[in-house]
Amino acid sequence: xxxxxxxxxxxxxxxxxxxxxxxVGNSHNYYDDDxxxxxxxxxxxxxxxxxxxxxxxxxxxxxxxxxxxxxxxLSITGTWLDQAEKWAPELIAQIKRLVETGQVxxxxxxxxxSLAFFYHREEFEKQVRLHAIKIQSLFGVTPKVFRNTxxxxxxxxxxxxxxxxxxxxxxxxxxxxxxxxxxxxVYRPHNCSNLKLLLKNYRLSDDIAFRFSNxxxxxxxxxxxxxxxxxxxxxxxxxxxxxxxxxxxxxEHQWKDxxxxxxxxxxxxxxxxxxxxxxxxxxxACELESPVDEISMPETVTWADTERDLSAWASxxxxxxxxxxxxxxxxxxxxxxxxxxxxxWRYLTTSDHVYSMCTKYWHDGDxxxxxxxxxxxxxxxxxxxxxxxxxxxxxxxENSTTSSI
Amino acid sequence: xxxxxxxxxxxxxxNSGGLGVACLNMAxxxxxxxxxxxxxxxxxxxxxNTSFMHIIAATHLDPIARYGGAYESTKILEQLxxxxxxxxxVSIRDVQHLYCDFIQEFLKEHHxxxxxxxxxxxxxAGVIAKKQFALPLIAHVHATEFDRAGAHSGxxxxxxxxxxxxxxxxxxIAVSEATKRIIHENYHIPLNKIEVVYNSLDESYNNSIYRFxxxxxxxxxxxxxxxxxxxxxxxxxxxQKGLHNLLHAAALAIHQNPKLLFILAxxxxxxxxxxxxxxxxxxxxxxxxxxxxxxxxxxxxxSLSDIFVMSSVSEPFGLTALEAAHHxxxxxxxxxxxxxxxxxxxMKYDYWDERKLADEILSIADNQALRETLQTNVxxxxxxxxxxQVAKKCMKIYNNVKHKRN
Lengths: 405, 406
Known about the structure:
The complex is a heterodimer of chains A (405) and B (406). Chain A has two domains: 2-295, 7-stranded beta/alpha barrel (Alpha-Beta Barrel), CATH 3.20.110.20; 317-404, no CATH class. Chain A is 45% helix and 11% strand. Chain A has 405 residues and is α/β, with parallel strands linked by helices. In chain A, helix 11 runs parallel beside helix 16. In chain A, strand 4 (145-146), helix 5 (155-163) and strand 5 form a beta-alpha-beta unit. Chain B has 406 residues and is α/β, with parallel strands linked by helices. Chain A binds chain B through residues 20-22, 316-318, 320-322, 359, 362-363, 365, 375-379, 381-382, 385-386, and chain B through 252, 256, 344-348, 355-356, 358-360, 362-363, 366-370, 372-374, 377, 381.
């Protein structure tokens, strides 16, 4: 028996616009840029819907209907759902149909795609709860397997998930941690009693997610027979192939004309054509075998960059101070009991914002620059701090009105 | 051995601006790659520490004479070069003709592999070398008349000389993509004839024994101690530098944060206008005009500043930004400056976007984290740009044109 565990991550941040110091105190509109503006959430959401969400969901639905053994797992952030409700509600209806087939499982995470676990435990737990409530209300299910934002994982997080009653948790299958061990097994996280650990097979995942259309890659073009041969070979190391990637791999990171849709559309039936092969959801993967070993990750491991650590979100003083300024405001924001203010503050916790302030590879103009909605990390930080200033302004104003009453 | 005939207009210490410094650094780096350089200047004078090349005087004129009375105000030149001898004034066109005559004679005896001409001032001589002696010509563009005239029109005679030189050249070197675009759009030169080679910081800048002493500007020191943020800009006060926009942005910023001091270092035809404008905007107290400064006094300004703004409407390269980076300033550059093409660790804006400039100044002044990140990162970045790389690129271009001809 050999299983592919396909897990796709669906997310869009709510970007703040180029919010000027001259707006502070005058306009509290941080998140609605002009439709054609650089940070227009609506324009970007509609664009990615056309290029990726709609065609890929349709492709998945067709395969789910045709192949009862095709299964997958999705994690969907609250910030994506908020935007889909406004601009593409049909996508939510479609995902609901998929969930109802029993072939699609929803994974738990923070509502706001935040790294709150590392900065504020209470806020983290609140955001996980908010996400679970949202998933329950839209799809009628409660997540049983957890993934933290950017697959940021350590022993402490596993301990938390174990105590919170999750069945499993996802992490990067990073060689430095695994050593000679293979990601193709179920593991037991250090110090946990029930929780199972699933590790991303980053080579086979990234062949699709990053290298698929790269013409200078010696394996280009990647065909289904070739890829399936690699999977067959890898299965000799263990029966479970964890393919974890962004949903947007299909249509947005790899455009339609690269052949990515045909590739996945062919791979699914081709894999299922062999009698010993199947697809599993993340919960099923956890039950595939008893944990073969215990794994400890005292240091945080993520799925980002070659470093696989948190440095893309926390490595320069702009990022440190943005994070500090944000979480310093939390108590005051929550005690205002003003839902709009709280929502505006929570949108700032999305990790994409501090990611766009990363300067590590900035001069090389690499993926950080490509994925950024801002002209530079410095501008991103500038506008972020202006939003924080305005939140502070609103808090002070509320306090002065409350005290005058 | 590659024999190069370089046609230049000035070399330090007889320079009025960046052109001479760039030529000297380029020649020195080229010599290290084995180039045998004859460097022609339009005047007679001594040039210390230039034994790596032969400097040849095209005329017996005093260095001050070369810009004649036409090109820049003679009064400023007198300040720049105190040895000026007023009786020697001839027009800049006269000097150019003398220069051309000299080249014509010189080439009858000498046989360089390549002729490398710097800016319109020497382009006519370059065209003679190309047309009469069939030598490969490289036209190096440090600035065009469109830059000097603030992106509109300019002197039609200079346009003609520029165009003729650019058409005759086998290869053109532009100091930035922005300059390349101007050459292509305004002179209709095909893009594949124009190479971009960025300038670098003067090599002596890193090695010199400059040390900051607070005594020079004790008032500014005091203001800094009182919590003021110092924002500076350096350059000629001409329309090209976009200083009106800078003052309008300064007014917007000072309105939000009165603890900002703007230093405008330099001089030029717009000086009185700018002083008047800062009074009209009500920010005279926060704007300081230093007049023309150079050497240590200039470096002290860079050292004292927290932020350096390059506000140019059009700037072929913008070496002052690298100098400021060297002294640890956070940079704000217009997208229209050549230097903004290669420096990533800087805030950028369009020269007309006064509000954005104000935004950026206020953010850097208020946020230590932003200021520090900009300052640290740009220091790591600017030192990667070197004259050695410039020379390597030039040698490659020389070899290409020489090879093509053979």
